[in-house]
């Protein structure tokens, strides 16, 4: 999974600062937070077999509770967020060879308390907090300060500040502003001149879209407006012209990555990549794998993901009866029974797969 990260890090023998919106062990849920709990993160620190020969790694994330294993560093800085000056304090613990840094601010703690992942981004699924853009811009700014201001000495092999020769790894729209702030607020002052930013896409569906007028809240120079400028057909959060944080991150980064090679293929694949010609074979292989009648003329609906609203499982469930009820056009009448059978069977396979994964 982390092969693209490893190739990147072999180019830059720098410390690594990994900025992310949530970290498992301290926050429930799955998605990109899980990457910082899984054994693959050891690749960052230990790809030669021991930490002494690896990279020094820091993760920077918001806290969503008073974590008993994270200690107050007593380092407090002032950062501009919107038109205000905010005080941010850093907490730290050293776990599994990684410096875990948490930025302490009420913007995070006052909304989420404890391991309640669904309320990190909004009070209920599908509804964002009104200050999400400001909250996560503050995370980006603090992530850029942490390597410079924190004197960390928990590792057997590394000590002191990380310094300015750092590879930053930003993740999804929540930290997509990091390369923009790096260029606008630091490199213009001669800081972090050798630093690089890799941007990892975990879920391209969430892009950090806000009203275009909100660009003024980010405290960036006007030359960055074109990187954010975005038009789509959606009426949320506003109709028409918007800013798109993920678009800006992609345009301003040094290296783009995805959470896995398979996701990268999914994002770039099309008929010219040979995917369309392979689909009938893939469908028949799937039918055989789950003990369904192998018939290329029977449509198959596939769903890979957790059975929760944000992944679209509710949309799929509502659409299936309509598909089954169609008897003309592309769905021949004689396929109706087989189609319904395959849909139901695949739903059961997905359910049991999900239960097995969760357990």
Main features:
single chain; Rossmann fold; alpha/beta; 359 residues; three-stranded antiparallel sheet; eight-stranded mixed sheet; 18% strand; disordered N terminus
For the record, give the distance between the C-alpha atoms at the N and C termini, rounded to a whole number: 22 Å
Number of helices: 11
- Rough outline: globular
What's the pLDDT, averaged over the residues?
Answer: 75
Look at the structure and give the CATH class of the largest domain: Alpha Beta
SSE order, one letter for each helix or strand: HEHEEEEHHEHEEHEEHEHHHH
Question: What is the count of structural domains?
Answer: 2
Helix proportion: 25-40%
Please state roughly what percent of the residues sit in beta strands, choosing from under 5%, 5-15%, 15-25%, 25-35%, 35-45% or over 45%.
15-25%
Low-confidence stretches: 1-12, 28-50, 273-277, 327-359
Q: How many β-strand stretches?
A: 11
Plain-language structure description:
The protein has helices at residues 3-11, 42-46, 106-109, 132-149, 178-186, 225-228, 245-252, 261-268, 275-289, 313-325, 336-358; strands at 16-19, 57-61, 71-81, 84-95, 98-104, 167-171, 196-201, 209-211, 229-231, 241-244, 255-258. It is of the alpha/beta class. The protein is built from eleven helices and eleven strands. It has two domains: 3-264, Glycogen Phosphorylase B (Rossmann fold), CATH 3.40.50; 274-358, no CATH class. The protein starts with a helix and ends with a helix. The chain has an eight-stranded mixed beta sheet with strand order 3-4-5-2-1-6-7-11, with helices on both faces. A three-stranded antiparallel beta sheet has the order 8-10-9. The radius of gyration is 23 Å and the shape is globular.
